[in-house]
Each structure stands twice: as structure tokens, then as C-alpha cells.
Amino acid sequence: MNNTDIRQAFLNFFQSKEHAIVPSAPMVVKNDPTLMFTNAGMNQFKDIFLGNQEGKFKRVADTQKCLRVSGKHNDLEEVGHDTYHHTMFEMLGNWSFGDYFKKEAIAWGWELLTGVLKIDKNCLYVTVFEGDDKEGLARDNEAIEFWKQHLPEERILLGSKKDNFWEMGDTGPCGPCSEIHADIRSEAEKAKIPGRDLVNKGDPHVIEIWNLVFIQYNRMAGGQLVELPAKHVDTGMGFERLCMVLQGKKSNYDTDVFQPIIHVIAQKAGIKYGDEPTTDIAMRVIADHLRAIAFAIADGQLPSNVKAGYVIRRILRRAVRYGYAFLGFREPFIHDLIPVLIAQMGQVFPELVAQKDLITNVIREEEAAFLRTLSTGIQRFNAYITPPQPLPKKGGAGVEIAEATPTDTLSCVTRHVSQVIDGSFAFELYDTYGFPIDLTELMAREIGWTVDMEGFTTGLAAQKNRSRQDAIVDTSDWVTLVEDAGMPEFVGYDLLQADTWITKYRKVVSKGEELFHFVFAQTPFYAESGGQVGDKGWLISGDEKIEIINTIKENELIIHLSRSLPSVPSQKIIARVNREIRTNVANNHSATHLMHAALRKVLGTHVEQKGSLVDENRLRFDFTHFAKLSKDEIARVETLVNEKIRENIQLKEARSLPIAQAKALGAMALFGEKYGDHVRVITFDPGYSVELCGGTHVPATGQIGQFKIISEGAIAAGIRRIEAISGKKADEYWHSRESLLTEISDLLKNPKDLLKGVNNLLNENVDLKKQVAELDKLKARQLKEEFAAQVKHYNGINFLTAKVDLDAETVKNLAHELNASIPDLFLVLATETDGKATLTVMLSENLVKERKLNAADIIRELAKEIQGGGGGQPHIATAGGKNPAGIMAALEKAKGFVIT
RNA sequence: GGGGGAUUAGCUCAGUUGGCUAGAGCGUUAGACUGGCAGUCUAAAGGUCAGGGGUUCGACUCCCCUAUUCUCCA
Questions:
Q1: Across all strands, nucleotide nearest A872 (CA–C1')
Q2: Structural contact between residues A38 and A25, judged by C-beta atoms closer than 8 angstroms
Q3: Which of A193, A135, A190 is nearest to A164 (CA)?
Q4: Does A316 have pLDDT greater than 60?
Q5: Is the CB of A461 under 7 A from strand B?
Q6: How far is the CA of A701 from the C1' of B72 (A)?
Q7: A434 touches strand B (CB under 7 A)
Q8: What is the pLDDT of residues A667-724, one digit of tens each?
Q9: Which of A140, A353, A528, A755 could be disulfide-bonded to A534 (CB atoms 3.0-4.6 Å)?
């Protein structure tokens, strides 16, 4: 059976058991502060388990794209070294929401594996929760009884709370679970050690393939468990592992899920898979990571240097690193694997096909960027291991002593003998320059050096500690004022003010700042989402008016942020949104829709939204497009948007439209966005802009006033960013441009043709510059002649002192020019500005060499006369002082250095 | 969100306890050589040293702030 058939068999089986087959949720999670990526099949049903939401179906099954790289399940550094862990994997799952329970879950699980997929019953073991005295939980005898109907008792094993009791978090729904394990060892091995002794012992060939969770308790904040009225089933089966078992392989990577990819990698590297453990690991790492990165990008998560984007970047870099270190790749290579990945998975996951170009370009660009980072690191590494060259003679006495001192020689030798890369240097390479520590080790080993790993680890620990200290957020428990309030109702599409009450609140302390989170029974406040910022406004409780500084979402819960708490939290309140801010935000949001449509009209329908930020000042829009927008294209977009504004198109809002109907209207949906069955559709002219959107909009486009693009640029390969303004901000923009123009025109005495006026000015300027340069030359010649006449000759030295009235830069230039025209020059120039005196001493090179004169020494002596200090180089030095009266004395004193 | 680094000519980058009239390579322009092209040689133009403030006789260099960007951690 190939992998496509296996996946389909699972879905068909549960469909036959009256399950609704739902699509995979995006891998990238939004609106859940505890989670960056989907890490289990149940994530998209979290609100149902938490009781926040009713499920639409009682029975559901799907295959879910999952990514496990951060947080509790952090396998990243292990992936590739073993044969069954992955970053990105598919989780096959079936769910019952208050419908069937243990009996059916167990029976169907067994029927699918042994009846439909024909796995040898004798290879399978199951585990059951053994109970826990501390929790007062009994053994899951129910499950045992059901299992006994399918397999002999000696293959039903008991497991501890750690392995067989599943909890979502510190609080919330939980319950015992039953795992199905498969023993895929050879008959000879099975004869030596019975499989039951290896279950949950880390043997790569006796592995868990399916976990059936029976959710029957709710863990309260105090730690006690309460029986749930509605019991649920939540199962998850690792698709790649199932393929391994069914295809009779010993490694997930030997299945047809990975082999085609590994084959291409091996071909490109010119190394056979199976030749050597290190190169095998590298190929597995690349094959695994390729999938994770490609799916993440398809779901709209681009590599970046923060948060989820940074996790993706790190995965990609790990793949590049392995390819670089073990397979000899020196050029971007991962993006070349996209076609084979698409051939593999494109049919099941059409988002890969649709975004092929973007995925390829983004990966290529990231690879190239990282290879540059590596080459910088290699340079720094080489500079570090190369002993410093002996210093050329500097003229100081210190050098001679150093050359003769045995200790110095010794230290030089020590450095070579010790051959240790300092831990702090290795950490600096890693931390500041992004150079991976394992590459530092590898390169050190190649030249017979070692790395002080202890020092490196110390540095890393200190860094982690700093970050952790900073990120500490102390969240208190919710204080519930109204029990069973359910989800708050959002009324902000129609109202900006509502009479309501606080259902619960809590205190959150972060970095010494104390904030309060409120949940209202109903609220006009829009919570930050879909790129639109959260509403600001006020909570009015009796005589108190408390400022709401932001509104955010946790999953579907709308939370209002404030710096203080009303004195009587339980009384009725008025929730009032700041109207002015909301209006500006709505202007920008509707303008974004108009611009999105305009971009597709002007540039083509390949334009897809990749990110959006809308606040009261501006709008920012990232979209797919492969070239810089020309001035003309920008102008056309602006013109089109402004035309649509003037048409004053009425907003058509459909609050709850079946998604199929919305798509039929041509509504633009985003990859990586999770939509329910019913969606909100925002239309400005059915023939122009139809989008799925939860944000707040203008009643008619005329309110936007006007629209202006402020900047356009690239943010990643194939992604452009536009920033624009609308309404009042656009007014302000044009006003400032106009006043600039008026000022320029005023400066030029309001010429008839301003452009011509500026051109004339520029041409005139060029001519005048030429004339000035000529005059300067002439003046310099005259000045030099003048000074030459004043030169006094002592002992073969041309001695010249003068007080001049010039700025510092000109004095320096004059000194250099005189030096160039008068040989054997000893020059002292003095100036006086703002009650301060400045001296400059210039000596010809040959005077410095032959007569051992030093301008820096001389100037220090002269500076005493003007009560100041200074210094410089042997041939030119400057000094400043606060006593201009001493200038003449200083010039007189200079003679003393020539007449000896 | 926190730490570290970077920002110098159109591009890629040097600039070593603060003092060399800020340099190199590529590119640009002009001239010469060549029958033409490719090219070679010579010369020139091109810099608010990211922006602002401070310390100093003197700041590309040291300190502070801001912006942009890279990188590590959370």
C-alpha cells in the first residue's frame, strides 16, 4: 500500500462510521498565546473541549499537519538521528464530542488496524492506565474489558500516569489513555526478548502508533479532578509510523513518504543513502526539514527573526548546516527539492502546488542568506586561529623589549600548543554572528584544535537566563463574577457603546507593570485580529472612567486590557469604544480591501495577501509579487483606489454566510487562515472587492476621503510591502507637501516656472563653483607667495609663524599646502575664535627624520603659553587653549626650537 | 520582549590604544593604444563616514539616544 492509499483508507473507514471528514487546520496557530504551531490533531477542537464552543459534528476525523519544534515537545536536535521523530508530521485522528466513548473507540481502532489495514494481530500491544493513588484514580478497568474482547490479556499492559494519563495543560479536560504499539522486529529478535518488555522503552522497532485518549475529567485550578458530564474521545495516530509498519520498513525514512526525496538528495550529493551513518543522518534531516519549511511557508509563515518565523528559519538553517557539513553542499540546494516534494504530497495538500513559486523563492533566498552568514563566521574563525603577525617596528622602545622577553615568546608558543578555542569566542560566533556551534567544533577538529564547550555553555546559559528573567509574566487566576457566562458576545459591528458587566477579571504582572484583563458579557470592543489592531476606549463604572488601552483575543475569548480595576467590579458598566480611533482604523481597513483589489487588477491575480497591519495611522500590506512596482503601477493603484472611494460604494456585509457560498461569490480567502463553516463576507461592489474578513469597515467608501501610498519595498523573496495612508493622514501628507513646494517657490521669489528656476539655480551653482575653485587656486598661490616672503632661515630651516583668521579645516589645508611648496619647513599657525586659541605645528618629513624634531612634543610645550593642551603626529599637531593673549608668546617660543 | 553586532564612494568592503588632507576592488566618465570588436593603459569624477547629542586641542574611531538591519535567546 502506498502512503496515499493508507491515508485514504483511514478517512474512508471513519467516514463509514458516520464521521465528518474535516480539512487539516493550518500548521501556524493564531490567537493562542500558549501555542505557535499546531502540535496535535486536537488543537483545532480546543474550544470544544474547554466548553467555550459547541461542536458542529458529534464525530469528526481528519489528517492534521503538525509541527513539533518548540515548547514542551522539543525534538528538533534529535530529528534525523533516530528513525522515527519528525518536525513536521501528519496526525490521523478521530474524535467523539460527547458521543461514542471507550467501547467504540477501541473496537474501531482495532478493526481498522487489523481488519482493514491487515496488520498482524500478534505484532500489536496495547497499554492501559494503571491508576494513581495520589490522584485517587482507579485502574481503567473499562478499557481493559473492551480490549479483552480483541486481544489476549498478556498483550494488554498497564502504564503509569506519565505514559497513560493525558492532560492538555495545568488545568482543563483530561483523562486516561490507551496506546497501541507495534512490534516490527524480526522473528529471531522477537524470540530473544518478548515485545511486551520493550513497550515504551525507547526501542525504535517497538513503537507507539496510536493514542486513544478518553476525556472524562476536568482538572480544576486547585488540582482536584471533576467528572465531566459529556465525555469525549480524542485520538492521534502518527501517519509516517503507520506507513512504516504497513510497508514493512524499519524506519519512517524508508517509506515512500521520504524515499523519493532522499533519493534526490543522495543524487545531488553524489553519496548513496546507507553508505555512512553521518551522511544518512544529514539526508534524513534535510528530507524532514524540507517538509516542515515548505508547509509552513504554504501556510503563510515566512522565515523571519522573531517568533514563529524564527522557528522556521532555525529549521531551515539546521538543514543547510547538515548539508554543508556532511554532504558538501556549498550552494543553495534545498529549494531544488520542492518539485519532488510536490510530486509526493501536492495532491493531498493543494496549497503546495498553488504556492510553488513562492516557496521555492523564499527558501532559495534564505539559504543564500545563511550561506553568507556561514562565510562571515568562517572568516572570523580563521582570523582567530591565525596567530597575530609580529608587529612592524613602531619606533617605541616597548617593541624591542617585547622581542627580547622570553615570556612573550612563551605565551605565543602556549597559544599554539593549547589549541583551544575559547568558549567566549565560540559563543560570540554563535550568538552575534549566528555561526552554529557544531560547525565551530567541526572546523576546530579539522585542524586538531578543541573547543572550550564549558565556556560556551556558560555563555549560553547566561543568555537564556537574561531572556527568561525578562519574559516573566505573572498571571493570577481569573476572578469569576458571573458563573457559566459562556463566550462574550461581540456587538461592535453595530455599536460603539454597550451596557454590560464584567464576567471575570485577572491581574497580570509583567516587568513591574501591572495590568488587568477584563471579560465582558457583551462588548463593542474589537479584539486585535486579522491585522487590525484592538480597540481602545473606556470602561465606565458609576463615577469612575477607566481607560481600556487595548483589546486582545485568547483563542475566541475577548480580553480588555486596563491599568486599573473599578472599585466595585461586580456592578453594571458602560463599555465605550474611542470613536475617533475606530473611525480612522476602519478607513484604513476598508482602504486595504480596495487596494488589495486594485493590486490584483493592476498587477495580476497572482497577488495574494501575505500579511496586513491596520491601525489608526496607516495601513501596511504584504503580498506576493516578484518585481518592484514601477512608479506608473503605483500611480495606477492609487488612482483606482481613489476612484472607488469617490464612487462612494455602500458596504455590503454578510455576517454569516456558508463558506461554499462565499467562495462562489469569488471571496478571497487566505492560505494559512482557519475559517469556520460560516464566514463574514465584506463586499465593496460585487464586481470589485469581495473578501472574507472579521474586521470593522466604513459604511460607504466615501468616508475614506483619499488614499496615498507612502512606500513600497521588498521584505522577502517574492514578497513586497506597501505602506499607505488614508483620510485625515493623507490630508496632512498633501498639506505638508504643498507647504514644502510653497516654501521652495517663495525662496526662489515665486518664478513662473518653478522647475526651470531650480534648474537655472543648479547650473549657475556649477558655474560659480568652477569660478570659486579658480579663485581659490589664485588666492592660495598669492597666500603662499606672501608667506614665502615671511619665511626666516635659521640653520637651514625655513621657519614661519603667523596668526591667521581662518577656520580649523582651512588652517589644516593651508598647512599642508605650504608644506608641499616650501622645503625644510617649520610652520606654526595660530588662530583665535570665541575667546579660545588654537595652534597648529607642521614640520617637513625630513626635519622629523633628520633633526629628530617632533611636532607633538613641540606643540605641548607651546600650548603652555595659551593654557591648554594638545598633541598629534610627529609632522603635524594641533593644540587648543583658553588664553588667546598668549599667542604671541607661543609663536616667539617656537623660535627656541630652531635656534639652538 | 531582552542581549550582542553592523551601518564608510553607485556596489562589495578595508580603516589595528582618538591625530596619515578617509582608502581598495568592481562599476561610471574621459583620453590613449587597436583596422573593428574584445581588451589594455592613463586619468578623473564620486563621501553630511546612518541621523542627533556628548567627551576632547582634535572623533570614522570613545560614550548616550534614535533609525535601519543581522544574529542569538525567550
A1: B19
A2: yes
A3: A135
A4: yes
A5: no
A6: 46
A7: yes
A8: 877 766 667 778 899 999 999 999 988 899 999 999 999 998 887 777 777 778 888 8
A9: A528
Measure the CA–CA gap between A518 and A531, rounded to whole angstroms.
22
Nucleotide with the nearest C1' to A716 CA: B69
CA atoms within 13 A on the CB side of A256: 13
pLDDT of residue A222: 75
Q: Which of residues 279-308 of A touch strand B (CB under 7 A)?
A: 305-307
A472 beta carbon to strand B: under 7 Å: no
Which range (A273-277, A295-299, A408-412) has the least confidence?
A408-412
Evaluate whether A37 touches A29 at the Cβ level (below 8 Å). yes
Q: Is the CB of A309 under 7 A from strand B?
A: no
Maximum CA pair distance of chain A?
120
Interior/surface letters A516-552, b for 16+ CB within 10 angstroms, e for the rest: bbbbbbbbbbbbbbbbbbbbbbbbbbeeeebebebbb
Cβ of A872 less than 7 A from strand B: yes
- Cβ contact A714:A628 at 8 Å: yes
Strand partners, A681: A654, A692
Sequence letter at residue A112: L
Name the packing angle between helices A102-110 and A141-148 (round to 10°): 40
Cβ of A463 < 7 Å from strand B?
yes
* A49 Cβ neighbours under 8 A, 6+ residues apart: A42, A168, A172, A173, A215, A232, A234
Distance CA A136, CA A150 (A): 29
A753: left (phi over 0), alpha (psi -120 to 50) or beta: beta
B72 nearest neighbour residue (CA to C1'): A431
| Cα–Cα distance for residue pair A43/A68, rounded to 1 Å | 13
Asked whether residue A470, judged by its CB, lies under 7 Å from any atom of the DNA or RNA strand B, the reply is: yes
CB of A466 within 7 Å of some strand B atom = yes
A424 touches strand B (CB under 7 A): no
In strand B, the nucleotides that come within 7 Å of a protein beta carbon are 1-5, 19-21, 56-58, 70-74
Please check whether strand B approaches the CB of A209 to within 7 Å. Answer: no
Q: Quick one: CA torsion of A587, A590, A593, A595, rounded to 10 degrees? A: -30
Query: What local confidence, expressed as pLDDT, does residue A512 receive?
Result: 64
Is residue A750 classed as helix, strand or coil in its secondary structure?
Answer: coil
Q: Is A854's CB less than 7 Å from nucleic acid strand B?
A: no
A72 beta carbon to strand B: under 7 Å = no
What's the CA gap between A195 and A127, in Å, rounded? 13
Could you tell me which of A624, A626, A711, A704 has the C-alpha nearest to residue A671? Answer: A624
DSSP-derived pairing of the beta strands A124-129 and A502-510 = unpaired
Strands A652-658 and A537-541, by their bridges, are unpaired
By the 8 A CB rule, do A428 and A384 touch? no
Residues A90-109: pLDDT tens digits? Answer: 999 999 999 999 999 999 99
From the centroid of its chain, how far is CA A211? 33
A878 CA → B20 C1’, Å: 15
Could you tell me if A595 and A722 are in contact, meaning their C-beta atoms sit under 8 angstroms apart? yes
Bridge-partner residues for A172, per DSSP? Answer: A219
User: Residue A681 in 3-state DSSP?
Assistant: strand
> Which range among A374-378, A407-411, A754-758 has the greatest average pLDDT?
A374-378
Of A262, A288, A286, give the one whose Cα is nearest residue A275: A262
Tell me if A162 sits within 8 A of A181, measured CB to CB: no
Set of cell numbers at residue A153: 490479556
The DSSP line for A57-81 is -SEEEEEEEEE--STTS--GGGTTT
- A708 is near strand B: CB distance < 7 Å: no
In whole angstroms, give the CA distance from residue A862 to residue A875.
15
Amino acid at A80: G
Specify the nucleotide whose C1' lies closest to residue A468 (CA): B74
ipTM of the complex: 0.81
